[in-house]
Amino acid sequence: MTDNNKKTLEEILNLAAAQFKVPREKLTPDDDFFKTLGIDSLQALDLLTRLEHHFNVELPDYELQGVSDFRTLASRIQARL
Amino acid sequence: MNQFQGQTLSWELKDGVIELALHRSPCNEIGSLTLGELERFASALERMQGDAHALIIYSRLQSGFCAGADLRELYHGAQGMERKAAARGVREFLERIHRVMNAIDSAPLTTIAALNGITFGGGFELALVCDLMIADKMARFCFPELRLGLIPGFGGIPRLKRDLGNAVVRDLLLTGRSFNATKAQQIGLVSQVVGEGESLKAARSTAVQLGKFDRHTAIAAKKFIKPIPYEELRKEIDIFCDLFTQPAVEAGLKKFVESTDAQPYLP
Question: N or C, which end of chain A is more exposed by having fewer CB within 10 Å?
Answer without folding.
Answer: C
